[in-house]
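Reviewer 2 asked us to include a model.

Predict the structure of this chain.
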Amino acid sequence: MTEPDATQRVVLGRIAGLYGVKGWVKVYSETDPPANILDYSPWYLKLAGHWQPYELQEGRIHGKGIVARLGNCTNRDEASPLLGAEITVDRDQLPVLAKDEYYWAELIGLDVVSLEGVTLGKVDHLLETGANDVLVVRSEDQQEVLIPYIRGDVVQEIDLEAGCLRVDWDPDY
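Predicted model (structure tokens):
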């Protein structure tokens, strides 16, 4: 089996700690809801510079967090090297979205351009604020611009093929 291209993977979380002595790990999940990370297997972890697949043997919600046991981890010593590793899955493992829906990972790296044609920077990451999500856009000179992710009002167009996100936003705001 050939290893899928790392650019075709999506980060879902990371290994945040060890749990117990039987090879379990604490998981920080970026999925919504967080327990959805347990719906995917295998997880790809980058260890010693190489992506390695790990089958999810079992996992559960534990208190306010998530714990999991991955294949070949039967004790704390075997799980220890996984600490801090990002958890990724193949993009094709994710559910297919409706036509005008996007995963956050698809928006990261897009050029952000105002309706006047002014390039504001690239999407660095997104923030969940409660009222609405926020695009964190980083310009070439490393300045951050926070733009509300409000479709149809602020965000006018998303073109993944062109790598562009068009916004109704004043560059001087």
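The first strand starts at residue 9 and ends at 19. Residues 76-79 form the longest helix (4 residues). We have added this to the supplementary material.
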